[in-house]
Amino acid sequence: MIVRQSRAWRYSLMFVLILLLGFTTPAIASIGDRLPEFRTCVATCTEENCGRGNGILPVHLRLLFWTCPSNCDHVCQHIITHQRLARDPPMLSPVVQYHGKWPFHRILGVQEPCSVVFSLFNLLAHRRGLSHIKERIPAEYPLRRYYMLFGYIGILSWVFSMAFHMRDFDITEKLDYFAAGASVLYGLYFTSIRIFRLDQRKPPVKATLLRLWTLICILMYVAHVSYLTLWRWDYTYNMAANVAVGVVQNIMWSSFSVKRYQKLKKPWAAWPGMIVAWIVLAMSLELLDFPPAKGLLDAHSLWHLGTVGPTIWWYNFLIKDAQQEIAGERLKA
After folding, report:
1. Phi then psi for 232, rounded to 5 degrees?
2. DSSP 3-state of 129
3. Which of 86, 202, 301, 324 is surrounded by the most beta carbons within 10 Å?
4. Residue 244: how many CB atoms within 10 A of its CB?
5. In whole angstroms, what is the distance from residue 138 CA to residue 142 CA?
6. How many CB atoms lie within 10 A of CB 188?
7. pTM for the whole structure
8. Which one-letter DSSP state was computed for residue 30?
9. In angstroms, rounded to a whole number, what is the distance separating the alpha carbons of residues 13 and 70?
10. Is 4 exposed, middle or buried (0-12, 13-18, 19+ CB in 10 A)?
11. CA 97 to each of CA 28, 50, 74, 113, 192: distance values in angstroms, whole numbers, following the listed order
12. Dist CA 82 CA 76 (whole Å)
């Protein structure tokens, strides 16, 4: 049994390393940006529509801060994509990326509609989970405040994800990345508190460890944001940092899940390990990075869809875990 478990861990770690390497490939300029026909299209559209008073856009586009030049850029992406798809003989890769993104079809001015909708699903999953924690976990339970903060940070991160996928601006991109980083790091923060019970007052050293761990996490986040803001905006580093922190907490929860199940012999005790497996599989969608089906559904949006179920399941585990502990304390009393 021990040999099988060690092999399973090795295979899991190998899969995680493959994911990490896949996420950290160096970024290169998009092919579409360099196409002469695309540049000509944008220049012609801008000259003919944006400089002669004819560049007034519909209200729904202006509400999402589309301008005449940015609209020309978007329209030309689809004109060139259509031309490449219609070419005979067919091209090997007719659909290419522009400015690091696939050419998505807009809906009411929204750049990536499916990612926005699926981000909303995740937000609602956190909102639902937060509501259940308030209802089903007593206020005096020491871990409740950490679980609630997890919910609030989750909601905030998906709000910024929706904003970024609605319109890709420098500010919306930074807010999305920084909120996602906060969510991932906070996950590691409260994971350590729950597994090692740093919330408990006895022995007294735990209070000191909790303060130290809180300070470490705050400094880590400040250093992360400062590096990206003041030194260099590095996509490779940002992804590697988030994946590394996520991997650590996934390993911690998987180990905790095995021990907890062996102790309690209850199916819900094994949920964290199952949730981790689901999330790792969902993460692997990011490696596919295929052109959006019907101009709407791509691998990134599917990754967002794939995290909705585990989020709902996770809150159910936190509530079950808390109720189990509360019931145990009552029996002792």
Report:
1. -160, 135
2. helix
3. 301
4. 15
5. 9
6. 20
7. 0.88
8. -
9. 43
10. exposed
11. 11, 24, 12, 17, 40
12. 10
CA angle 120, 166, 222 (to 5 degrees): 80
| Residue type, position 159, single letter | V
How many degrees, rounded to 5, is the angle at CA 102 between CA 164 and CA 176? Answer: 15
pLDDT of residue 22: 45
Q: What are 168-184's pLDDT values in tens digits?
A: 999 999 999 999 999 99
pLDDT digits (tens, 9 = 90+) for 77-103: 999 999 999 998 888 889 999 998 999
**Residues whose CB falls within 8 Å of the CB of residue 174, separated by 6 or more in sequence, listed in order:** 228, 229
Answer for the pair 166, 115: CB distance below 8 angstroms, yes or no.
no
Tokens representing 266?
């209850």
Q: Which residue in this structure is represented by tokens 């699926």?
A: 118
* Mean pLDDT along residues 27-48: 86
Q: Give the separation between CA 228 and CA 185, rounded to whole angstroms.
A: 16
**The one-letter amino acid at 259:** K
Single-letter amino acid, residue 326: I
Buried b (16+ CB within 10 A) or exposed e, 72-86: bbbebbebbbeebee
Cα separation, 217 vs 228, in Å, equals: 17
Alpha carbons 269 and 314: distance in angstroms, whole number: 11
DSSP of 225-270, one letter per residue? HHIIIII---HHHHHHHHHHHHHHHHHHHHHHHHHHHHHH--GGGG
Q: Please check whether residue 311 is in contact with residue 122, taking contact to mean a CB–CB distance below 8 angstroms.
A: yes
